[in-house]
Amino acid sequence: ITGTRSNVFMxxxxxxxxxxxxxxxxxxxxxxxxxxxxxxxxRLPQHNAASVISRAAELGVRIFIVHLDAxxxxxxxxxxxxxxxxxxxxxxxxxxxxxxxxxxxxxxCKNFERCRVPIGYxxxxxxxxxxxxxxNTYCMPERDPKNGRFGPIxxxxxxxxxxxxxxxxxxxxxxxxxxxxxLPFSMDGLWKVDTIVDVLQNRNVEPxxxxxxxxxxxxxxxxxxxxYDFSQSGEPISVDDGADTRAVLFN
Length: 251
Known about the structure:
The protein is built from six helices and 13 strands. The protein has helices at about 10-20, 50-60, 85-90, 155-160, 175-180, 185-190, and strands spanning about 30-35, 60-70, 95, 95-100, 115, 120, 130, 140, 165-170, 210-215, 215-220, 225-230, 245-250.
């Protein structure tokens, strides 16, 4: 964390290098658990999901991500944005080059972003934040205007998937404890299913985007059968905290 910014991928890479890279841990089983409350606050090219996945694979580290996505009101009743955007998210420069080029459509952005004009500081004291109507459009984080959340983040799902870890998405703070209580069981009892998805012909799923696979798994052991639903509503801890338990398959 730098100041008020959560540099999630930079933090992951730092922990991988300082906590898991030393030779003395080479033969150990290694697991990294990350708690986050939103997406990465910077788009640094040297610290991204791909760099985390690559280094974790080299070191044999499984990554579990617990994501609390608490609701925040993004606009006033009149539709005016409440918060300004972090200028470094779109205007930062690394080695003299901008970390973002202007975008033309949402298809160029990550699944929690929208291609829009950034919201800046007010130009007069005590005035609300404002949008420069003549500015360029960039891929900016965007909360759902209906529920005030970003939603599950594909990059976190991919990191968990490709490192044999897990991604726990939680909507309310009250749901953290009951969901994290299952974390040790997930670490010890992880299983895999090889799935062939060539029969799925959904042309609306872009490359590197995700399919969400809904099904029911039944297991019989010693004459006792138990079933688990992988569904959009999931198994809610409370009325407001139904976690999506569908399997995530990347296109």
